């Protein structure tokens, strides 16, 4: 199943069944199980990976079950770490968490080592994931991990998994919410789309898929 991206180009969003199978594989794998919470969160919040990488301990409110998204973490070509505004027009989003997403963040926070010195990037500190040098993980780290996980899955199973990236997780979430009938304005807010047209394109695309399936079903009955 494909979905329309912010650039207007179609990009694959995996089916619910593929998402479930991939998550189960990660959950049960002895090597990759440590990434399960992150992958679950990306599939169930639609966050941009740069926004996820920018999250700090202060951005997660487990009591109110909200995530504060008002910045993103990037690493420049000169390997400098910088905090940038989000792509969202409003600049700041507070998105609600489901019970399951809340528990995933709780597990991440509980497992986080107690660092003696915390790296500060443009005034932000307390990032959820740091590398061996104490620097926060950036999008590229997670993209590499996704590549390894998908490759490993496809080595094991005959029915192959399409390429899954953090961006595919985002579009899968968007497609799932649209298919479930979420109000487009609510989905626009959750996705941080500055233009409602981008959100509506997802509904149009899914409507076209549904219409094709319905036509094929009726054609078989005729």
TrEMBL record:
**PROSITE patterns, alphabetized:** TYR_RECOMBINASE
Q: Where is the Tyr recombinase domain?
A: 9-216
Which first-to-last residue range defines the signal peptide?
none
Q: Which UniProt keywords apply?
A: DNA recombination, DNA-binding
What InterPro entries is this protein classified in?
DNA_brk_join_enz, Integrase-like_cat_sf, Integrase_catalytic, Tyrosine_recombinase_XerCD
Family label: Belongs to the 'phage' integrase family.
**PANTHER family in the cross-refs:** INTEGRASE_RECOMBINASE PROTEIN MJ0367-RELATED (PTHR30349:SF41), PHAGE INTEGRASE-RELATED (PTHR30349)
Q: What is this protein called?
A: Site-specific integrase
Query: Origin organism of this chain?
Result: Blautia stercoris
